[in-house]
Hints:
Layout: E1 3-7, H1 9-17, H2 22-27, E2 33-38, H3 39-46, H4 52-63, E3 66-68, H5 72-87, H6 94-105, E4 109-111, E5 125-126
Parallel strand pairs: 1-2, 1-4, 2-3, 4-5
Helix pairs in contact: 5-6
Amino acid sequence: MAGAVLVDSSYYISLQRRGVDPFAVLGAHADEYEFLTCGMVLMEILRGIHAPRVALRYREALAVMACVPTTSRVWDRATGIALALDRKGAPIPPQDALIAAHALQANATVLTLDLHFQKISGLTVLTDLS
């Protein structure tokens, strides 16, 4: 197994928009990776789903993933990430700093299509699973 991967909302949303089931894609790589989530990713995904059946399917599929807890240490780490990037003149949205902090806390890679994550020192980023 290659390790833990926290899947960012941009990955789910991109696949869904292309008519691809993101959970089928992740499932095809379940022997290679342990997929994680966090509260911020859950909120970002679920707030954009308006069809109750689709929302239920996502809730059920996401519920089987380990959810990295949002502890005070994660908040401190997210704040540090945001401040460091602000000082470099390369700010990112606070929710991305929080997701990155969850990944770092879990020693996980982030699977994302969002380029903001590549600015974060010490964070490993994947854009696909191939």
